[in-house]
Amino acid sequence: MSARSLTTIRLAVAFFILGILLGTSAAISVDRNGYEFTVAISEDAMDMADDQRLPFLEALKATLTSTSRMLLDATDNMLYFQKVNILVPSSWISILSGAQVTATSKHNYLNADMRIETTKNVNEAQSLIQPARSYNSKMCGQPGEYIIAPPQFFLDVNGATVAKYGDKAKVILHEFAHYRYGVHDEHGIPETFSDLGAKFPYTYLNPRGEWQLTGSNDSKIEGSYKNATGGDCTYPNTSDAPGADLRCRFIPDMTATTGPSSSLMFMPFLPTVSKFSDENNHDRAAPNKQNYWCRNRSTKTVITKNPDFSNLSPLASNTPTTPQFSYLVRASQAVYIVLDTSNHTLADNTVFNNIKTVIAQNMIPRLAALSPRSFVGIATMGGSTVTSNGRLGGYLTEIQSPVLVSENQQILVNKVTALTRSAGQGLLLEKAILDVGDILTEFTHLSGSIALLVKLNDITGEQQMNVECEATHLLNSRSARLVTFEFGSNNVLVRSTLMSGGTHFPADSTNYQSVFSSAIDKTLELTRESRYQNRRIQLVRDQFTTLASKPFRGFYTVDFLDSVIELHFFVPVSRTGDYEISVNNTDGTTYTLLSSEHKQLYLSWDRKYKVHTFQLSPLANGVTATYSVSTSGAEMTGYVEAIEVLGNNVPVHVGGGGQAQTRVVEVEVYTSGNNGVLNMAAVNEDTSFLVYASVRKGYTAVRALKSAVAMIHGPTGNTENISLRDDGLYPDLLERDGIYSGFYRPPTIPSNGNYRISVRLDGFRRNDPLAPFNPPSSRSMPIDQTEDPSFTEGGSTTSFQRWYPYIKNLQVQAANFYEEKPLRIMDFMIDYVNSVNDNVTFKWTAPQNSYGKNDSVASYRLAYSSYPSDIIDDKGSIPTSAVLVKDSDIVGGTLTPAKPYETQTVTVRMQRVGPSPPTIYFTINSNSTTGFQSYTAPMVYLTGSEPPPITTTTVPSTVTTTRTSTVASTVQTSSTSTQSPTTTSSSATATPTTVTKTTSTTMVPSDAQRIGVSFFFNSFFSLFLILTFAL
């Protein structure tokens, strides 16, 4: 048997904590032609009836088994699913009697390839069947975020799934191509056609001057046009077409024994379709997403450039492709023990050795017995030197990374027993906690991590510390709770512990043994809470400045009424009685420093600030309340932070599913690159440093934020803020789909190293907190759970804030190879054709020389040919051999670059000779002032007859014609004539054709036929559109 290679894709199922979904990348490695694919089953699916769970698991395995075989065939025997991990809820273990179920912390919701979640309609108690779909917010050719599907999709009760979407395995293969290979759909959007100026029309005028269905197939598709009731209809070709019906659909004949083999990204439900389009049959003129975003290249061209195919040899066609299935269950939680090993000021060796012995002989054995699925790690802190351990604080010495306690009990005991006090003088507590939060990041998906922090000496370097917000915010965002044991009288950990929802244990030389025993008991108690979660949401941390003439005003938000709001105001210790703080509750009640809801107990770690704390329970349905800080003296600067503590009755579910009214806001952050690495020398597609933040509430996307900002923390300590936008302009793919995108330019080249990303989101904020609120969008998502039930039409009057520190990492490599290309021209079009003078006018928006800089590009290259491959090669670039428009061809306008964002036009003499002039294709790119070329614009074309034979010489600059129809949109020839029931003759080129026929009966078509390709959309927004159009 030939050698195989295994490509590992870490896919897992885990649980959503605090509305924060850290965007951990799937880890990919190539070793023997097979993918390791992990499926994660969410808490939502736990509502599935007991008698449905085993049938669902069997249906899931059967579907993925079929998908594996189809994948091998579609990739020309290169890749298949060799292993599939299924991460099940812990409550499902009892139904898997006889099957091995392994606890894991490696596979989780954050790096899952496919998530299984239920979908529920607000008006119906039963879950609805919805298709599998994928999320990919990145550039063409880059891997996406995940696939998601409800269990009902796999159960296929009474054949409902197949009737609606076709073969389940093909649906998964279609979505896998979106997810893993970064290719896009090849169909159009129903109820749109190119006369209406749609970007991805359902029909369009092809290069032969015929109206076609947008798509890509290699042979004819038989079928007819039907309306929603099964009657014959005509799809409109112009906005005033008589008798036309925008709800008309092309219904393929699903009983046909012959038909196209491609493309899986066009009509995967057709029985004969099994391949991706290649350059021999790809419809490069059709105005679809694949051509628009992948520069008119076939799906197979993009797929085979994926790193997964590197150095692979094809397997035999009869290679067994049934995956090896394994059941996993999430670990209970991570328990991270941090022991102070410094040797100054307080505890002596007797105290240290006693503490160490209790951990080794009492705590670890009890953890193994009470919580065998817990992962336990050990680290030490001490000394006054920050090291280069790669963590946020650069301080901890990790003795043992978290491991499964039931399998590693003796290893952990031995590690603790061997510890000594050798760290030297000093204790940098803030740095230690930053490291703890960083280490526990990969365990955020568990049901709450616990850090037992044992402090035996005084902290040092207080004046160099920040207020401890950053460290405690990090713990809250990682769903980690502190349990702190503090020896001595200087109890600096109290506030930080309480802010994380933990418990503080102060001790001295007379009681430390019993107190430490209590600290261990508390830690074990938390591990025994099967549904324990740190339900604390970091709303905001802001600096404030207040003047006597202008008080500082702000707001805080409430997601759920069953919650508590904690507000912390940091005021300089030097200020005494010359300031006031007022906080309003959601019912309008005002609280001041004299109110019982206010406490002033703690100082910040650096001793520079006193902390005023307000703890309020929301009392009304309103979700936004205000606060103010005023002074009668000199200018005062401080900090304010807000934390929302969710009540026990607030449902906390896995992200991505369900109705908005029952979900907290969920944010996932991703970057460009592959598996957390951006190799600027090796990535085939766009090598820019890009950041994406997906903001959702259930299945609802946030379509308007006041601002979304990513803070980039560089490897040299530099920090820079970049704006994230959802406007459809580079690098954002689709306007108002809830995915906010941004570009970061490293300050120097080369800039290799690890970059960390924090994200700050602000919602619908009033300009003046006391003024009436005017929402910025009429189609915005409500943040609260009771207000604006008709949010899709009415808009929200709520405000919204979230702060996610260090939520994502990106390792940048080979930065010196980076080419910062000019922005791609995306709106290139034919604006006017003068058939009398044989002139054609092109129009586009002048691009920036580089992203974020309003400099003009150096020049343009406007290329044309009768063959698309002559002007766009397999890399999506204009070949050096392409025929370009010369200055002598220009009769109006100019190819001299205008200022960025200005509309530019040029009129070219483009005559075509003969009674049957050929189609001519055009594209344009630009050259930067530093010598880099942009990617090509989507092609446009002048319609004509069939292209000339291959033997025809290169098209000269000037050719004549008497006919010059035009399409002012992105290109691609479609496959199905919309003028039913006529027959389109077979083409001599690769352009596919379709024979349409009228059925003899008036049967109502199935959903899969009537809706056609409409459900196979990889973006949530597009899926929403299609669902709306198809209903």
Overview of the structural elements:
This is Calcium-activated chloride channel N-terminal domain-containing protein. Residues 29-315 form the Calcium-activated chloride channel N-terminal domain. Residues 770-794, 961-999 are annotated as: Disordered. The chain has 1031 residues and is α/β, with parallel strands linked by helices. The protein contains 15 helices and 49 strands. Strands 1, 3, 4, 5, 6, 7, 8, 9 and 15 form a nine-stranded mixed sheet that branches. Strands 18-17-16-19-20-21 form a six-stranded mixed sheet, with helices on both faces. The two termini are 51 Å apart. Mean pLDDT is 78; it is low at 1-24, 121-127, 765-798 and 947-1031.
CA-based gyration radius: 31 Å
The biggest beta sheet reads:
9 strands, mixed
Shape: globular
- State the end-to-end CA separation: 51 Å
Question: How many helices does DSSP assign?
Answer: 15
How much of the residues is beta strand, in percent?
A: 25-35%
What number is the mean pLDDT? 78
Find the structural class using helix and strand composition. Answer: alpha/beta
* Quaternary structure classification: single chain
Residue ranges: pLDDT <50 for 5 or more in a row? 1-24, 121-127, 765-798, 947-1031
Number of strands: 49
Instruction: Give helix % range.
Output: 10-25%
Pfam family, one: CLCA
Region (Disordered): 770-794, 961-999
Domain Calcium-activated chloride channel N-terminal: 29-315
Organism: Daphnia magna
